[in-house]
Design a protein that fits this description.
With 621 residues, the protein is an alpha+beta fold. 36% of the residues lie in helices and 28% in strands. The protein contains 19 helices and 35 strands. A hairpin with a 2-residue loop joins strand 12 and strand 13. It is elongated, with a radius of gyration of 37 Å. Bound molecules: guanosine-5'-diphosphate (GDP) and magnesium ion (MG).
Length: 621
């Protein structure tokens, strides 16, 4: 369904026009009725001559209520730019037009109202002025309809024009995921909390679980109404009133967004393309605080200009918007920028990355990436995000690009198929980036092996630190390398699959002599440091013998030759089996040894998971 919005200066007959077209008075608040002035958004609907149902959002014209106008204009498909025949173009005609322009609303009709009050020649002048004012804007060349709402003239022609206009518009494709920026929340007795808004992505279904952003409160759709009629499901573009379970009115103020849980993540830093209106009075300086309107939300933001030091009226720039309150937006969302004081619309733009990290100013690489991000499709933005931020988990990546959902899945499939993205486990790499990481890991390991030929490999943690990866990403990378047969992992140590510890003849001779003595020594092995010194076995060589499984290091100065230790272990286990348990004294007596040997051996067996300590005794594990 299409939603149409009004726009134009106060008292130009917007609400009267909506009333005349639909029979519904959009001014619903008592204060609006008593003051004869629209303050907040009004809603109405009608069926066009073609049989098409449309919704209408009526906005206030008064300059004090521009924020309400922006909230209403956010989700509309086409605009009725209303200009009173007796007054012609006025300040908020221009300001509303500028807002439609920056929001990218490029379908509309110019409606000249109150034609009963003026002469036809005068109307022609107003029409000419109107065409001039829309020139160069998104409504450039829009058809003009002339009406009198009081005398009800020109209304049918207007409806016909509207039908023609909508014929040429594309309906948002179905199959997306619902997103509803909330413009009103109230309580209905017997129902509870009801919110309204224009469903910008859909469909929305009865019973659906949703999340309120930025608060993160979970809720469920208890009922949906469109145009006061209950419906099971609502397509995107429609006006919606949604009865929510489990939330208070205060949980869903205007500016909140309802979305599928996990689809959007509130962000405080967004990358965007910002244009300053030609009508802005002065250049925008880097760091300026402004009001940013996106969806139905209005937040304070500081603008970081990335490619200029001051943005001139009529020019555009890459910016980072640092917002004071979290914003829950998607890539491609439009926003309006207003000056804080005096409050006037000065520009707007498009969000390129909803969840950004701080970028360097005046950096050509950064600017080029933003450019590609803005012009590319989602698959490109996936690749670019990975390029920029390094490997990411799927979830993280979805949030950093357009949000999870079928669009993301499709884009991901495309990027994987084109081999621009590669994944290992749940971590996604930009393929060039992965190649670089693989090469880095390989050369770090090769260097290590070269420098430490006797060591079996590099500590995992050390490799992770050198590659500067998070542990999840690192683990995925290592699994990938293992699968590819590049590395071999032994506990906490990683080595190149091709690496073998090879002893020189001399080292082998020394090692064998040492092991031989140990083998002969039995339970009461001679101190390791003395043996090592005697045979000229370096610490490194000892370590390598341990890693290679030829030597069992039981204590800092106590080691056994592997086979001989196996025998000792078997005897101890047999002893435990016979006696049920054993303590240090028992072991000492059995082997005619001393605590010096028995204690470290039992502790070693504990730590190897072979025995278990119970009080002073060891039992079989
Ligand atoms: N004569 C005449 N008066 C109109 C017409 N349309 C609106 N008005 C009057 O203009 C005033 C402002 O209209 P309203 O719809 O509230 O303007 P809005 O602020 O743009 O919504 C009201 O007093 C209306 O009755 C029209 O076509 N002809
Ligand atoms: Mg009004």
């Amino acid at each position: 369904m299409f939603t149409i919005g009004t726009a134009g200066h106060i008292d130009h007959g917007k609400s009267a026009l909506v009333n005349a077209l639909t029979g519904i008075d959009p001014d619903r608040l008592p204060e609006e009725k008593s003051r004869g002035m629209t303050i907040d958004l009004g809603f109405a609907w009608l069926t066009l001559p073609s049989g098409r149902d449309i919704s209408i959002v009526d906005v206030p014209g008064h300059e004090r209520f521009i924020r309400n106008m922006v909230a209403g204009a956010g989700g509309i498909d086409a605009a009725l730019l209303v200009i009173a025949g007796d007054e012609g173009v006025m300040p908020q005609t221009r300001e509303h037009l500028a807002i439609l322009d920056v929001l990218g609303i490029d379908a509309g009709l110019i409606v000249i109202t109150k034609c009963d009050l003026v002469e036809p020649d005068w109307l022609e002048l107003v029409a000419a002025e109107a065409l001039e004012v829309v020139e160069g804007s998104s409504l450039d060349g829009s058809p003009i309809a002339t009406v009198s709402s009081t005398r009800r003239t020109g209304l049918n022609r207007l409806l016909g024009e509207l039908d023609d206009l909508l014929d040429g518009l594309e309906q948002t494709p179905a199959g997306g995921r619902p997103r509803l920026p909330v413009d009103r929340a109230f309580s209905v007795s017997g129902y509870g909390t009801v919110v309204t808004g224009t469903l910008i992505d859909g469909p929305l279904k009865q019973g659906q679980g949703l999340e309120v952003l930025p608060s993160g409160v979970r809720t469920r759709v208890r009922g949906i109404q469109s145009h006061r009629t209950a419906v099971e499901e609502l397509e995107s573009g429609s006006r919606a009133a949604v009865n929510l379970s489990g939330v208070e009115v205060s949980d869903v103020p205007r500016g909140s967004v309802l979305a599928v849980p996990g689809d959007l993540r509130p962000s405080r830093l967004l990358d965007a393309r910002l244009s300053l209106l030609g009508s802005a009075m002065k250049p925008l300086k880097n760091g300026t605080e402004i009001a940013m309107h996106t969806g139905t939300a209005e937040v304070r933001a500081a603008v970081r200009l990335l490619d200029v030091d001051a943005l001139e009226p009529g020019a555009s720039a890459w910016v980072q918007m640092r917002v004071r309150q979290p914003v829950s937006a998607k890539q491609g969302d439009r926003f309006v920028v207003r000056q804080l004081s005096p409050a006037v619309t000065i520009g707007g733009g498009e969000i390129v990355a909803p969840k950004a990290s701080r970028l360097r100013r005046h950096d050509l690489d950064v600017l080029e990436r933003l450019e590609r991000l803005a012009t590319g499709d989602m698959a490109d933005s996936i690749v670019l995000t990975l390029e920029r931020s390094g490997p990411m988990r799927r979830r993280e990546l979805a949030e950093a690009t357009g949000g999870p959902g079928p669009e993301f899945d499709q884009a991901m499939a495309k990027a994987l198929k084109a081999e621009q993205v590669v994944h290992a486990g749940n971590t996604y790499f930009e393929s060039e980036g992965l190649r670089r990481l693989v090469n880095a890991a390989k050369s770090l390991l090769a260097e290590f092996h070269e420098a430490n030929p006797l060591r079996s490999g590099l500590q995992r943690e050390e490799l992770r630190n050198r590659l500067r990866l998070g542990s999840g990403q690192f683990n995925d990378l290592i699994s990938f390398l293992e699968l590819e047969g590049v590395v071999q992992v032994d506990g906490a140590v990683v080595r190149l699959a091709s690496h073998r510890v090879e002893l020189t003849e001399e080292q082998e001779r020394a090692a064998s002599a040492l092991l031989e003595v140990l083998n002969m020594g039995g339970f009461n092995a001679p101190p390791l440091n003395e043996l090592a010194k005697r045979f000229g076995v370096t610490d490194e060589l000892l370590e390598s013998l341990g890693a290679g499984g030829r030597l069992v290091r039981v204590g800092s100065n106590l080691a056994y030759e592997a086979d001989s230790f196996e025998g000792i272990k078997d005897s101890i286990m047999k002893l435990i089996e016979d006696r049920g348990r054993i303590d240090v004294a028992g072991l000492r007596d059995h082997f005619a040894s001393s605590r010096k040997y028995c204690l470290p051996i039992l502790e070693y067996l504990d730590s190897a998971g072979i025995t278990r300590r119970v009080g002073d005794f060891r039992v079989k594990r």
